[in-house]
Write a structure and sequence with these properties.
The structure holds two protein chains of two kinds. Chain A is mainly alpha-helical. The longest helix of chain A has 37 residues. In chain A, 76% of the residues lie in helices and 0% in strands. In chain A, helix 3 runs antiparallel to helix 11. Chain A has one domain: ABC transporter involved in vitamin B12 uptake, BtuC (Orthogonal Bundle), CATH 1.10.3470.10. Chain A is globular, with a radius of gyration of 20 Å. Chain B is of the alpha/beta class. Chain B is globular, with a radius of gyration of 19 Å. Classes of the chains: A mainly alpha, B alpha/beta. The interface between A and B is medium-sized, with 22 and 38 residues.
Chain lengths: 340, 256
């Protein structure tokens, strides 16, 4: 099968699967909807339940609970997966991801400090998360450049930074009880408290970053060739590396601002997508976005339904899946030093 | 043509090049030799604007290097660096990236770029493994891919830092044929080589570097007539005329 045909089938299959999961996520729950009812409500009519007492409640649940939650899980999954793929390319390290090298923790600290200052939603939270993640990315970048650190050292440095940032955030939470109340959901990661108000600013930032990134795929590929080769074919590497780090931080920070500290998506999704598409960013990034969106949406749906009426925070489910996968990666490539 | 006039360059306080003067002419092969740490690679990087030049000036085809954007410079000089990342992409894609300087935002490769990249791969005899990942190739194969990438860049000047590294002797001979072809097609070729015999065989001009300066410069015959190789490396090089042309060899003193 030709490469283009295979790619088209892969892309089409992933889109259909993710859309199916999104429809299921909207339909399934304590109150279930048929697809006809779902599209009826989304289309402006109340569907088969029109005229019944359930109509208004169903519409309310769908439009103000499940729809923002589904959009949030799709956006967070897409943003974190793409952010992970970009970081891995720019840092030339396939074990880099926003949660492992401390980018999520930086965003988390930003949000915690923002909440402590009394700003609980809107652009303020998104900006604080972005600032936190951006500062973390720059610290890692400067650390790796100044010390000429190996790929492993960059990861270990990121893990250390992760701990430091989490410790600072924990200290703020202990000292400020209001923040502590907000912080439990946030630290685990989940979408149960997502509202349009929290979602909108981050969604705009994520979409803007996607538009820019998807037009810079060749540049991202050239950055991975190494500084001298990339400069030799005309790319000002320093500027572009900085731009990609800012975009990766923007995506991770925006996602963390409404989804909390979801781990491992930025590691697992790009890793598996690379196996299917190879490393060319023109294929890697779109497929990471779609499959990341579908994967997080699926995890969120499962975490909602498995213990219904109770709900398992999706962050816990992510860690249960992500932890073993991460260990598998480390064990599998231990002998080959593939990631060194 | 490249002209280097009174160039001083280096990394921060560490000045590597001191008052370097050097001309590489169009349609000629200029080889830079010198012992390790003599400044050969730094000189090439200075030509590419990859190290800060603190004095003097460098011109390519009459245009000052420091006044060109990176993309403009990449259309003039193709550069094959010494140390290269092994990118996680296919060999074909790697060669295609040689066309990168010619793209405008949003940079998408055109049919013409694919055709030129294919021609470059054919020229290097690597068309059959265009789909293979760079990491799967041997060192010699990878080197051919990098050379094909430089060819796809279609520049008037080609600068290569130790291009024969990883190539076996058969491939080195093919490589010297290719370099001759490039110079015959009016390209300016500058090579850094450690292999003195290959340098003597293929070059039109040899520039010998020592302590960040051009120590001596001349044709292979002039260099051979001097004691430069003994001064730089402590070896004597001899030449003998055969039916197959001039042959060069190292003369080793008997050791006890």
């Amino acid at each position: 099968m030709g490469s283009k045909k295979r790619w088209a089938m892969l892309l089409g299959g992933t889109i259909v699967t993710s859309l199916t999961i999104a429809v299921m996520s909207l339909c399934l729950g304590n109150i279930c909807f048929t697809p006809a009812e779902l599209f009826g409500i989304l289309g402006g009519s109340a569907g088969n339940r029109a005229g019944s007492g359930m109509a208004d409640m169903g519409k309310g649940i769908l439009l103000y609970a499940r729809l923002p939650r589904t959009i949030a899980s799709l956006l967070a999954g897409a943003a974190l997966a793409v952010s992970g793929a970009v970081l891995q390319n720019v840092l030339s390290n396939k074990l880099a991801s926003p949660s492992i090298i401390g980018v999520n923790a930086g965003a988390g600290l930003g949000v915690t400090l923002c909440c402590a200052a009394g700003v609980l939603s809107g652009y303020g939270v998104s900006c604080a998360a972005f600032a936190g993640s951006l500062i973390t990315v720059f610290i890692i970048f400067i650390f790796s450049c100044r010390t000429n650190a190996s790929k492993t050292t960059v990861i270990l440095g990121g893990v250390a930074l992760n701990s430091i940032l989490n410790a600072i955030a924990e200290s703020v939470t202990v000292l400020d009880t209001d923040v502590a109340m907000l912080s439990i959901d946030f630290r685990v990661g989940g979408f149960s408290s997502v509202s349009y108000q929290r979602l909108m600013p981050a969604a705009l930032l994520i979409l803007a970053a996607f538009v820019l990134l998807f037009t810079l795929c060749n540049e991202l590929d050239v950055v991975t060739l190494g500084d001298e080769t990339a400069q030799g074919i005309g790319l000002p590497v320093g500027k572009y590396r900085m731009l990609f780090l800012v975009l990766a931080a923007l995506l991770a920070g925006a996602a963390v601002s409404f989804a909390g500290l979801l781990g491992f998506i930025g590691l697992i999704v790009p890793h598996f997508v690379r196996r299917l598409t190879g490393n060319e960013s023109g294929r890697l990034l779109p497929l990471c976005a779609i499959s990341g969106a579908g994967f997080v949406n699926l995890c969120d749906m499962v975490s909602r339904l498995v213990f219904a009426p109770y709900e398992l925070p999706v962050g816990i489910l992510m860690s249960v899946i992500g932890g073993p996968v991460f260990l598998l990666l480390l064990v599998r490539y231990r002998g080959g030093h593939r990631y060194d | 043509m490249i002209e280097v006039k009174n160039v001083c360059a280096g990394y921060g306080r560490n000045q590597v090049l001191h008052d370097v003067n050097f001309v590489a002419e169009q349609g000629k092969i200029t080889v830079i030799i010198g012992s390790n740490g003599s400044g050969k690679s730094t000189l090439l990087k200075a030509l590419l604007g990859l190290v800060p030049v603190n004095g003097g000036n460098i011109t390519v085809e009459g245009a000052a290097v420091n006044e060109m954007t990176r993309a403009e410079l990449a259309k003039k000089i193709a550069y094959l660096p010494q140390g290269k990342n092994i990118a996680d992409i296919s060999a074909g894609r790697m060669v295609l990236h040689g066309r990168f300087p010619y793209l405008k935002y949003p940079r998408k490769y055109r049919e013409e770029d694919y055709r030129i990249a294919e021609e470059a791969m054919k020229q290097m005899g690597i068309s059959s493994f265009a789909g293979k990942q760079m990491a799967e190739l041997s060192g010699g194969m990878r080197q051919k891919v990098y050379i094909a990438m430089a060819l796809a860049q279609q520049t008037p000047v080609i600068v290569m830092d130790e291009p024969t590294t990883y190539l076996d002797i058969g491939q080195q001979l093919k490589f010297s044929g290719l370099i001759k072809q490039l110079s015959e097609s009016r390209k300016t070729v500058i090579l850094v080589l450690h292999d003195i015999l290959l340098a003597l065989k293929i070059s039109d001009k040899i520039a010998a570097m020592k302590d960040g300066k051009i120590f001596r410069c001349g044709t292979p015959e002039e260099m051979l007539a001097s004691d430069i190789f003994y001064t730089l490396y402590g070896v004597k090089v001899k030449a003998v005329q055969t039916d197959a042309g001039m042959q060069y060899y190292y003369e080793f003193a008997d050791t006890e």
